[in-house]
Structure formats: C-alpha cells, structure tokens
Design brief:
seven-stranded mixed sheet, Lysophospholipase, UCP032025, 3 helices, alpha+beta
C-alpha cells in the first residue's frame, strides 16, 4: 500500500533556494516543523508519507513526514525531516491549506537510478523543470 501525502504552497518562496533557506532557519536536529492551524483529519495515514511543496504552480520538492504535535496555542505542528528531496516537477494549482495526494499519484524523486540529477544545483533543476526539460 502506498503512503498518503499532502501538498502545500510554499508561500513567499520564489524558488527552491528560498524554501531551502527557510527550512534551514527552522531546522533542529534534522527536523523542520511546519505550523498550521488545524491537524489533518487523516494525520495517522500521513506519517511516513511526504509533504510536497508547490512553488510557482508546480510540485517541485518534498519532505518526509515524521509525525504531528500540538503547540501551546492548540495549533498543529507537522514534524518534517529537514532534507528536501527534489521531485519530477508536476503542475499543481495553488490552494489554501493542504490537499491529500495518493502515493501512486505522487511525482517521482529525481535522485537515484539513471536519471540521477541530485548532483545538479537546485536552481538549475528548477529552471530545467520550468522549461519541461526534466
């Protein structure tokens, strides 16, 4: 069975480098929390899945979901791995909050195998993706 994922807009991030800087700024011990008002109703199914980030109307990177917690104000904390994994960019409309994404519908990672692009700079991957070359 494929894990369940969620998608979220990287508000205020013009590119992957900006998102990476934001995540590095809040990462502690390999974990990068994302605060949101409400806990997803299917949170238990999301653990082990990923949060796929939308930048410029495209799914471009993901972070593995470690778990969920609650802050002092009662809001949800999505506990994510700090590592950003580039994925084969796919068009995705912007939306508020998050949307669920079935595992079989998730874009493939870019690292590993014959198409190992992990050695490329993130900005170049982003530009090639925008041109639909990768």
């Amino acid at each position: 069975m494929h894990p369940l994922h969620i998608t979220k807009v990287a508000v205020g991030c013009a590119d992957v480098d900006a998102l990476r800087a934001r995540i590095e700024g809040r990462s502690v011990n390999g974990e990068a929390p994302v605060h949101t008002r409400y806990k997803p109703k299917r949170a238990d199914e999301l653990i082990g899945g990923s949060l796929y980030w939308i930048i410029k109307h495209r799914l471009v990177v993901r972070q593995r979901i470690i778990g969920f917690a609650e802050d002092e104000g009662g809001h949800c904390i999505i506990r994510l791995e700090s590592r950003l994994m580039p994925v084969r960019a796919r068009p995705k409309r912007a939306h508020q909050g998050w949307r669920y994404l079935k595992g079989e519908d998730a874009p493939a990672d870019l690292d590993g195998g014959e198409d190992d692009l992990s050695v490329m700079p993130p900005r170049l991957i982003s530009e090639l993706s925008a041109l639909a070359l990768i």
